[in-house]
Specification:
Helix content: 10-25%
Radius of gyration: 21 Å
Order of helices and strands: EHEEEEEEEEEEEEEEEEH
Shape: elongated
Length: 224
């Protein structure tokens, strides 16, 4: 899911200077740190050391392993880097230029593994029977679930469908998303249970689902 985009100092400087010029909002993540939005204040040089200075939410103290992620809308991809040792004040922090920038997967519908405890509730269309399952993975285009789902087969339409999506870091609140309609595209029986893959009938524009996927990608990539 994550590959090195560049280890070239000049290219990295140009990329971060572009982010600074366009005032691109970046997401800062770290252990027990709520997702925080930061922007680059300057990219400069002090002697032989190239540095990047960021503006951060006032009052947040930064420590531990920290990662920065941002979206390149023009390329439809996500890039990021790990922060080194930093110097910080109440509103700003400064770090050395990162040695490399990586890219995260470039699929139209990035698919992420859901954290343990993520669940699905749904009903086959025109049925009063409620089905329950465990969410294995999810994207903006569909999901894969596992559970006691016998009687549901390829082509079955589910309407509505509710996903409760969890994070590994339990201090983050679960995300609850309701999908109006989905269709089963694959069915695999495993003893008394069934693994189902289904496609949302229309591309989901649900901001909650989009935000969950973005944050879950970051959570999975932080320590990969």
């Amino acid at each position: 899911m994550k590959t090195i985009w560049s280890e070239d100092t000049a290219e990295i400087m140009a990329e971060l200077q572009r982010n600074n010029d366009e005032r691109i909002s970046m997401t800062l993540l770290g252990p027990a740190l709520p997702p925080s939005f930061i922007t680059i204040r300057s990219v400069g040089q002090n002697g032989e050391q190239v540095f990047v200075e960021f503006e951060k939410p006032e009052g947040i103290q930064l420590e531990g392993d920290l990662f920065v992620f941002y979206i390149r809308e023009d390329l439809s991809l996500m890039r990021g880097f790990k922060l080194g040792a930093l110097r910080q004040t109440n509103r700003f922090f400064r770090v050395a230029l990162p040695p490399h920038i990586f890219e995260v997967q470039r699929r139209k519908f990035p698919r992420v593994y859901a954290a343990g405890g993520s669940t699905m509730n749904c009903a086959p269309k025109a049925s009063r029977r409620i089905l329950h399952g465990q969410v294995i993975d999810v994207s903006l285009g569909g999901a894969k679930v596992f559970g006691n789902l016998l009687g549901v087969e390829q082509g079955t339409v589910l309407s509505p469908l509710t996903l409760t999506l969890c994070f590994d870091e339990r201090q983050r609140e679960d995300v609850v998303v309701t999908i109006a309609e989905a269709v089963v595209v694959r069915e695999i029986r495993v003893k008394e249970k069934v693994e189902l893959s289904f496609r949302f009938q229309t591309e989901s524009a649900d901001d909650l689902l989009r935000k969950y996927i973005e944050l879950r990608i970051l959570e999975l990539e932080m320590y990969d």
